[in-house]
Amino acid sequence: MSRKKIIAGNWKMNKTPSEAVELVNTLKPLVQNPDVDVVYCVPAIDIIPVKKALEGSNVHLGAENVYFEDKGAYTGEISPAMLKDAGVEYVIIGHSERRQYFAETDQTVNKKLLKLLENGFRPIVCCGETLEQREAGITMDWIRMQIKIAFHGVSAEEAKGVVIAYEPIWAIGTGKTATAAQAEEVCRGIRETIADLYGTDTAEAVRIQYGGSMNAGNCKELLAQPDIDGGLIGGAALKPDFGTIVNYNK
Ligand code: PEP
């Protein structure tokens, strides 16, 4: 099965609304590749101006987080309906920075995944191991557990539309990329986990990204791996380099 590549930028806590519009306009001519789904996951306050700036472009809009309740007394949170109304399609959940600094857990990721699917979003579910876990030889056990908890209660049909981002924590924002072989090994393991849960049809449909210091120099080799269907890009998403990654096959 051929899966369309998906290259998503995770802007993290960068760019004010006016800077965000400027970045969209700078990148616009650089990110046109019909072979790739391109997504910008932007800070909540940038969603509305970025949506407007993206009009007529091939880029899909994403958010970096969502809350798992529909509405109510949850000061500071953003609901699925708010994101929907603002034109968001993709939502990152379970990013390691949210787990580390904001107490995100596999259980809250599961609640968010179910809520996003109920509301017709395309979730991007992040998973990844620490350096200690890698060195202890438990990478795949850890990732399997993260995936199994995240997908609890998700149907096979729903699972097909979920994007999984494998992001080794030691590679995020460090300039230390996993080798193509290391990234492929875990992405293949994730696909096998999905096959165990749902069967091979679903496993073959699910798109799995690699994330962790992917850049213009290393993207080609990573994206050539059979089980790596795209990238989740942090630092390089804020630069013209993002265009080189989107056009990795040119
Ligand atoms: C990320 O934040 O998802 C990420 C992969 O960051 P970076 O590309 O900067 O390592």
What is the fold's blueprint, element by element?
Layout: E1 5-10, H1 17-27, E2 36-42, H2 47-53, E3 59-63, H3 80-85, E4 90-93, H4 96-102, H5 106-118, E5 122-127, H6 131-135, H7 139-150, H8 156-160, E6 163-166, H9 180-198, H10 200-205, E7 207-211, H11 219-223, E8 230-233, H12 241-246
Parallel strand pairs: 1-2, 1-8, 2-3, 3-4, 4-5, 5-6, 6-7, 7-8
Helix pairs in contact: 1-2, 5-7, 7-9
The chain binds phosphoenolpyruvate.
Can you tell me about this structure?
It is built from twelve helices and eight strands. The chain has a single domain, classed as TIM Barrel, CATH 3.20.20.70. By secondary structure, it is of the alpha/beta class. α2 links the parallel β2 and β3 (59-63). The two termini are 22 Å apart. The structure holds phosphoenolpyruvate.
